[in-house]
Amino acid sequence: MIKTRLFIRTLLTCCFLFILTACATYYQKQAEFNTNFESGNIEKAKTLLEKDKKGPEGKAKLLYNLNRGTVEWMTGDYEQSNKYFNTADLLAEDYQKNMANKALSLVTNPMAEEYRGEDFELVLLYYYKAINYLNLGQHDEALVECRRLNLRLQQINDKYKKKNRYSVDAFGLNLMGIGRRR
Question: What is the arithmetic mean of pLDDT over 140-150?
Answer without folding.
Answer: 89
